[in-house]
Amino acid sequence: MTTERTPIYQGRVVDLGIETTVMPDGRPVSLEIVRHAGGAAVVAVDSQLRLCMLRQYRHAAGGWLWELPAGKRDRGEDPLHAAQRELEEEAGQRAASWQKLGSTITTPGFCDEIIHLYLAQHLTEVPQRTEAHELLEVHWISFTQAQEWIHDGTLADAKSIVGIYLSLLPLNIAHGGKC
User: Fold this and answer.
1) Please, which residues have CB within 8 angstroms of residue 171's CB and are 6 or more apart in sequence?
2) Per-residue pLDDT tens for 84-93?
3) Are the C-beta atoms of 70 and 115 separated by less than 8 Å?
4) How far is Cα 22 from Cα 30, in angstroms, rounded to an integer?
5) What one-character-per-residue DSSP string does the chain give?
6) Strands 39-44 and 114-125
7) 20 alpha-carbon distance from chain centroid
8) What span, in angstroms and rounded, lies between the C-alpha atoms of 88 and 30?
9) Phi, psi of 29 (to 5 degrees)
10) Which of 19, 77, 134, 148 is catalytic?
11) Pairing of strands 2-10, 15-22
């Protein structure tokens, strides 16, 4: 239980503070904690069983990354709504079918960010609406290619790896098999 929070910085994306709490064994500690609204990521699959991947420039990560369409939730925004919005904005796709795959805590040592993961199918193209800070390309790849990229390090984004692997069972795709 947090007993005190000293704000350090509050920005558009993160809220950093020092939180004083008591550990389950009774020890008091002060921790640097980032509070974040969380986000949503989408495993979008077309009628040919291809996966929508973004090649996106990420300054904080040092360059170009392969990722699923994803983004930050607005405070209080329903995770599914955030996923639907991000799929349209980033990939220019709208899905008629949505399935919750699960969620992942991105960096539990210092941040409370949770990414909600969804499978989106029965896609139709809509106008793409990227934001000014986004530089990205939309690509469609096979699940076999995605798994190869995960294993050779080409695809290193954690939320994307988790989302892709969580989608294999509902899509009836064998892990490591040809897709």
Assistant:
1) 45, 49, 119, 143
2) 999 999 999 9
3) yes
4) 9
5) -EEEEEEEEE-SS-EEEEEEEE-TTS-EEEEEEEE---EEEEEEB-TTSEEEEEEEEEGGGTEEEEE-SEEEPPTT--HHHHHHHHIIIII-EEEEEEEEEEEEES-TTTB--EEEEEEEEEEEE------TT--EEEEEEEHHHHHHHHHHTS---HHHHHHHHHHHTTTT--TTS--
6) parallel
7) 29
8) 41
9) -140, 155
10) 134
11) antiparallel
Q: What is the pLDDT of residues 16-26, one digit of tens each?
A: 999 999 999 99
Integer Cα distance of 134 and 119 in angstroms: 23
Q: Is 137 a catalytic residue?
A: no
Those residues of the chain that have pLDDT short of 50 are 177-179
What's the pTM value of the predicted model, to 2 decimals? Answer: 0.93
Residue identified by tokens 């969580």 is 166
Contacts of 15 (CB under 8 A, 6+ apart): 7, 9, 34, 35, 36
Q: Which tokens go with 70?
A: 């994803």
Size of the chain in residues: 179
Which two tokens mark 113?
Answer: 């960010």
Q: Give pLDDT, residue 175.
A: 65
Q: What local confidence, expressed as pLDDT, does residue 179 receive? A: 45
